[in-house]
# Entry
Amino acid sequence: MNQQKKHRFALIAICILMVAGAATAAISAQQEKVVSSYGPTNQDVTFDQIKATRMAVKAERAKQHMELLNSRYDLSKKVNAESVMSGGKPLPVGPTTKLQGVTWEQLGKMTPEQIKEKGIFPYKPLPFADHAEGGMLFPPMITKPLPRLVRFDLDFDLPEHILPDPAPGIYLTTRPDLGDVAKGRLITIDNYYEIFNGILNPKQLEGLRLLVTQFPQQQFNATEDRRTDRPSLGVTCFDCHANGHTNGANHLVGDIRPQEFRHRIETPTLRGVNIQRLFGSQRALKTVEDFTEFEQRAAYFDGDQCMAAKKGVNVLERGSQVHFMAEFLAILDFPPAPKLNIYGELDRTKASPDELRGETLFNGKARCAACHPAPYYTDNSMHNLKAERFYKPELANGMMMAHDGPIKTFPLRGIKDSPPYLHDGRCFTLEDTVEYFNLVQQLQLTTQEKQELVAFLKSL
# Structure
């Protein structure tokens, strides 16, 4: 009997060791688990559970992000009432970034290696409001008229005074005599027909209808892992590209993994796509039709076709729907620039001395025209600025500040209407943008030369 008990205890001990070993192995395997490129398509938790998890981290993530923004920028409202966007909104004034123990003049004379070693580059890559989460995020000036775009888990991070007009002007290449067709109205499914019937042909009108029609997107859909309180039909193209322009909405690029290496993407304007040959900040898609399909098939779902299948991908028909959308986009014009002549250069009889000197700098010492030649101020190419020469790779609120890579040369026509600047919006003002390129190109411009460049950019 005693021998049997000994065997029994031995077996129990062996079982305990096996279970403990299996648990240890499971923990080890979990720790070593490779991060997948794919998201969970079959959620095993409810909407209420998902919302509770997101809400539990919302305040702390927002606090961390605002601490980062305030450490880098002066977010107080500074605008120039005498310099306005084409819709009348005052331009934000900069530079807004905070320097660390140096002046702009001192910084401009330092080498990239010196700036990197001291960790004082003022325009490091900008993280998303919650980089680990991502998704489309809209400013209050668009969520107020369109409350369906409110996310329960994230608040917009940038102040409104550095964003474009809430209802930007619409200028048409086919009817320049009309000027701003929008006239202060935000174009939606409720008013597009009333405003544009009789101005557009039937194909253009149908294309515009599709551009203001909601289609499912990663955070805005009817599934349990949405980020809206109520099930949603989705977003429209014009929710980000307000009136064919931009409202400062941002998201994370869909074509990079893992998550911490994804870039924040600022919504670019759609004005002037008729003269562009590349589409997407870094994607280099060759036609606006390709871009239209790419957005709704993949980019809407963070580049995950499995999520797209789950949440309701909108498969557009190339010969009609995509064609019609592109036909409307192709007639979106830049805003008027009365100081430019037919070559896209300053008319010397209309321009101020500062603007003329700025144009000379633009075409000469500042070397802006190397990538941004007149008349539309783009070379329709991509360039790698190699800004990583100036900062060390480091994790910032869930984002790895690594290489930016090649970036599309955006047209500068109407540039004053499109703050914030660069693909991720890290330059809040035109002054910030000039300071950024002065450093990256190592131009050593004087304070006066920088001001003259800004004056010229405002005239475009």
